[in-house]
């Protein structure tokens, strides 16, 4: 068997025909400055070729049903194994995906509840047995022959719907007879129930007379009861028994059903507990746990106007059409309760506004008509009515909207007047309420899902089962425990199974995928990882390294693209690509151990490993002023009524272990509250008592790692905003040459302009093949230039517009030296270490870290004097080499020097140690976090014994020659 993965002649992207030997069954780290070609080697060449060869081995039929991979630019790769890439990309936008579904633990959990769960009566919570259909039939057959039974199933009113809607559903299923609070009722009769009242409703599914050949009929009846209407619950009511038969009803119900309500439960399947199954998911939110609800304040167009004058959203009360049913109800209410519809909304009494927004809450009033009323309304004159309220009317309309095909305009209306809330029906639990009547270990499936993983693991060790179910329960819990242990090993103890996947970071998602790979127990695999240390506190880095070694020790080859010094030192083999980014990179600089890199003269990473290069601590830190964002009583997620002042006019770092509450405090509470103040009042912040100090700010700008554009046409030049000026320069040249071309003709987005219409300005023609990878060919018309010949003839300093777009930012700085506007924006990009990117490089090829730095460059390039913005960055060191972090720090300091405030959520100690003020959250993650452990200068935080960040910061300051001052524990 080969000892190496041999790569020969790799020319992908900026790789310069390199040859590499990567040892098998070892942990190899590929490092180098940002843009040097690390990912090109690891993902495009090694992973891409491994994936392509695997897909090539499949049948033509299989290949026709999956996306194929393009062959990378490489001569050959020997020694490949089946390859799996675990990338650091968030990418999980499905709101139904959770930590539990990602790891398959929730599937085992559903199986556990279906196999070993114990049920309780949904009406009185009394324990009841779970019986199969066969067990129910055998029990009934013990009754005297001729006994008459009724088979009944409970039915539940839909949240927010009328009883009539519920009855319509029952009729549609073919049932006609109900018991409403014990009173027999026929659905063909006119039923008038109080909508606000609660009724106990049961469907009479069938009547059965006990006799020897009853099995088939009774089995069908039971199946209908359990699946069609009963939500798993069923009741057998004895109506009569033959004269003289010895029979005791108590004996029949004992140990078989609830002694008071006579309900028993059918055997649930695993799908019974799935929020992705339409029969089990909450009917209101369809298993999402959240629901859009109207907000009263968004229904008001102008509070200075009256209702008659158009104060309310026209879709509800249009001033041009006052004959609608809603207008009739509002006018009738005004007449009955004595309020004036010509009074401005701001002067109306609070009880009247409450009635308009939230209805009369069951209280009735007579319906009045006037000259604008319709014929239908005249027929209802004098009839007693109630009013649901504007908010409830919009909520009802929205439910109807979800059930039909509607226009985009209607969707936009609901987005304008509604806010996402926790589902009012299931309260965020996602399942129908009957599912929570089944418990394991005294807890329902939602209670299991919201426990932090560390608590859940402890809960499992204390779990016991009945003797008859111990063999099944023990086997399933063992599988759950094994998977939980892997998640705990990589520092994810603070997550819960119910945590939505779209709320976790890219680093957390990568570590979850890593844990699932270890649980598979495969050997002989090749794993390619992209910066697994991202989002990890220094305390948890060692856990991640041990996890990688565990995967290696199973007999696998691990290739990691990484900048983290601890991970690099722990590798069996290190490869450095460089020496610079872009066209100045793509070569093998050094390989071997950490000692080999430290001794290599060209190695930038080696200089940091040896300590000859370090990120310097500033000689003077900025003093704090009285300006601050003051947050009081923050209690969203795991925050424990946090009171904190975030200083303005300085560089502030929010630190803490994973799950300590950093992102919740900054993104959910502070940012959303400031966005609601400055931009959009519909944004709902996390729970808190108050936020003050915003008057010191002009605005808030968040710079995250989301893409700068979803289109392949979006690029750094268009995003940062200097491509328009480049087009103007070319248009001026065209005018000077007597050409009729305009600025628009130099855009590859403009139809029927100067772009190549054969490829529509893409430069390539993509041919989709059925069972082979899509073939990308250079456009034969423009030869990849994206523009037609007439446009390409226009030259600026000897370069066409296509040549300019193909320039690197570094080259463009020199090319546009006489254009101050373009030069300024290019220099900012270059200053942030992005000189290797091409001006026209597609945004879809940029990493999250590159996208974040382009956004930062955009903000830096348009700094205005006199404004005071708060810039919020979430882990901006992602994807950055140590040499590039210094450039990032310089740019952030530049923002602060220009009179702005910068707030960074960060784990990287080299960035934390240069901050003016540090706020450390913790002390741990999940329920053990959510408080401010320490705050002050990095030296002060380093002196706080209770701070985990302080412990590692102390070591970093010592290595940098900083003086550690004794800090105060402030919280």
TrEMBL record:
Subcellular location: Cytoplasm
UniProt KW keywords: ATP-binding, Cytoplasm, DNA damage, DNA excision, DNA repair, DNA-binding, Excision nuclease, Metal-binding, Nucleotide-binding, Repeat, Zinc, Zinc-finger
One protein family per Pfam: ABC_tran
GO molecular function terms listed in the Swiss-Prot or TrEMBL record: ATP binding; ATP hydrolysis activity; DNA binding; nuclease activity; zinc ion binding
Bilayer-spanning residue ranges: none
ABC transporter domain segment(s): 615-954
GO process terms (BP): nucleotide-excision repair
UniProt cross-references to PROSITE patterns, sorted A to Z: ABC_TRANSPORTER_1 (PS00211), ABC_TRANSPORTER_2 (PS50893)
UniProt family annotation: Belongs to the ABC transporter superfamily. UvrA family.
PANTHER family listed in its UniProt record: UVRABC SYSTEM PROTEIN A (PTHR43152:SF3)
Record's protein name: UvrABC system protein A
Source organism (scientific name): Paenibacillus paeoniae
């Amino acid at each position: 068997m080969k000892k190496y993965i041999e790569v020969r002649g790799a020319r992908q992207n900026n790789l310069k025909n390199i040859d590499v030997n990567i040892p098998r069954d070892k942990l190899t780290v590929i490092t180098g400055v940002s843009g040097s070609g690390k990912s090109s080697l690891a993902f495009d060449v090694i992973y891409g070729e491994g994936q392509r060869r695997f897909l090539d081995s499949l049948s033509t039929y299989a290949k026709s049903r999956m996306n194929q991979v393009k062959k990378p630019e490489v001569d050959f790769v020997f020694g490949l194994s089946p390859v799996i890439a675990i990338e650091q990309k968030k990418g999980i936008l499905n709101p139904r995906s959770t930590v539990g579904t990602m790891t398959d633990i929730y599937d085992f959990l559903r199986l556990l509840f279906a196999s070993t769960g114990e049920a309780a009566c949904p009406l009185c919570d009394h324990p009841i047995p779970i019986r199969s259909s066969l067990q129910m039939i055998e029990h009934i057959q013990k009754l005297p022959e001729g006994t008459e039974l009724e088979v009944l199933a409970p039915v539940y009113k839909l949240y927010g719907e009328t009883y009539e809607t519920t009855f319509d559903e029952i009729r549609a299923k073919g049932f006609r007879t109900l018991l409403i609070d014990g009173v027999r009722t026929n659905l063909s009769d006119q039923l008038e129930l109080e909508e606000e009242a609660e009724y106990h409703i049961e469907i009479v599914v069938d009547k059965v007379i006990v006799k020897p050949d009853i099995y088939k009929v009774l089995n069908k009846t039971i199946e209908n009861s359990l699946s069609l209407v009963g939500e798993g619950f069923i009741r057998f009511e004895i109506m009569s028994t033959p004269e003289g038969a010895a029979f005791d009803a108590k004996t029949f119900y004992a140990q078989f059903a609830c002694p008071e309500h006579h309900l028993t439960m059918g055997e649930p399947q695993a799908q019974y507990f799935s929020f992705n199954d339409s029969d089990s998911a909450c009917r209101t939110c369809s298993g999402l746990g959240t629901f859009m609800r109207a907000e009263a304040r968004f229904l008001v167009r102008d509070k200075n106007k009256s209702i008659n004058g158009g104060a309310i959203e026209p879709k509800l009360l249009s001033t041009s059409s006052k004959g609608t049913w809603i207008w009739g109800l509002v006018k009738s209410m005004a007449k009955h309760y004595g309020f004036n519809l010509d009074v401005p909304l701001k002067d109306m009494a609070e009880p009247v506004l409450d009635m308009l927004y939230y209805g009369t809450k069951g209280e009735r009033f007579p319906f009045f008509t006037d000259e604008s009323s319709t014929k239908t309304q005249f027929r209802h004159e004098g009839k007693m009515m109630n009013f649901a309220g504007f908010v409830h009317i919009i909520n009802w309309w929205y439910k109807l909207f979800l059930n039909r095909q509607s226009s985009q305009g209607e969707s936009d209306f609901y987005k304008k007047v509604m806010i996402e809330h926790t589902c009012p029906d299931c309260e965020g639990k996602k399942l129908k309420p009957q599912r929570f009547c089944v418990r394991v270990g005294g807890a329902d499936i939602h209670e299991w899902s919201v426990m932090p993983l560390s608590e859940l693991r402890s809960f499992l060790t204390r779990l016991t089962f009945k003797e008859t179910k111990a063999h099944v329960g023990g086997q399933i819990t063992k599988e759950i425990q094994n998977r939980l242990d892997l998640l705990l090993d990589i520092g994810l103890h603070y997550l819960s199974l119910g945590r939505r996947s779209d709320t976790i970071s890219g680093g957390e998602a990568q570590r979850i995928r890593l844990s699932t790979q270890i649980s598979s127990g495969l050997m002989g695999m090749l794993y390619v990882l992209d910066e697994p240390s991202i989002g990890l506190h220094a305390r948890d880095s060692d856990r991640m390294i041990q996890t990688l070694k565990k995967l290696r020790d199973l007999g696998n080859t691990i290739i990691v693209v990484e900048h983290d010094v601890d991970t690099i030192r722990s590798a069996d083999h290190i490869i450095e690509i460089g020496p610079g980014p872009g066209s100045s990179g793509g070569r093998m600089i050094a390989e071997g151990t950490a000692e080999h890199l430290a001794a290599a003269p060209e190695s930038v990473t080696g200089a940091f490993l040896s300590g000859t290069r370090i990120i310097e601590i500033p000689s003077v830190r900025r003093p704090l002023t009285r300006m601050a964002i003051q947050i009081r009583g923050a209690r969203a997620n795991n925050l424990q009524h946090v009171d904190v002042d975030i200083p303005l006019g300085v560089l502030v770092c929010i630190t803490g272990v994973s799950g300590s509450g950093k992102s919740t405090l900054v993104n959910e509470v502070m940012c959303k509250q400031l966005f609601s103040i400055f931009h959009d009042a519909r944004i709902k912040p996390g729970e808190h008592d108050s936020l003050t100090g915003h008057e010191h700010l002009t605005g808030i700008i968040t710079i995250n790692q989301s893409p700068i554009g979803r289109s392949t046409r979006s690029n750094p030049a268009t995003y940062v905003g200097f491509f328009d000026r480049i087009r103007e320069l070319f248009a001026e040249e065209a005018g000077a040459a007597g050409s009729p071309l305009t600025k628009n003709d130099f855009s590859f987005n403009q139809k029927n302009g100067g772009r190549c219409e054969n490829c529509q300005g893409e430069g390539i023609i993509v041919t989709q093949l059925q069972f082979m990878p899509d073939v990308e060919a250079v456009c034969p018309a423009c030869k990849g230039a994206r523009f037609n010949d007439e446009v390409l003839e226009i030259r600026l300093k000897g370069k066409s517009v296509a040549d300019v777009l193909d320039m690197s930012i570094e080259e463009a700085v020199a090319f546009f030296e006489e254009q101050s506007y373009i030069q300024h924006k290019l220099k900012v990009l270059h200053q942030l270490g992005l000189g290797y990117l091409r001006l026209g490089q597609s945004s879809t090829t940029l990493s999250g870290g590159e996208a974040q730095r382009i956004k930062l460059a955009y903000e830096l390039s348009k700094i205005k004097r006199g404004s005071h913005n708060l810039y919020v960055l979430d882990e901006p060191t992602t994807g950055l080499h140590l040499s590039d972090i210094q450039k990032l720090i310089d740019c952030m300091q530049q923002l602060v020097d220009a009179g702005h405030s910068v707030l960074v959520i960060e784990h990287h100690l080299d960035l934390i140690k240069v901050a003016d003020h540090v706020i450390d959250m913790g002390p741990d993650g999940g329920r053990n976090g959510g408080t401010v452990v320490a705050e002050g200068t990095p030296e002060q935080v380093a002196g706080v014994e209770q701070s985990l960040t302080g412990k590692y910061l102390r070591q970093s300051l010592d290595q940098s020659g900083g003086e550690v001052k004794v800090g105060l524990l402030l919280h």
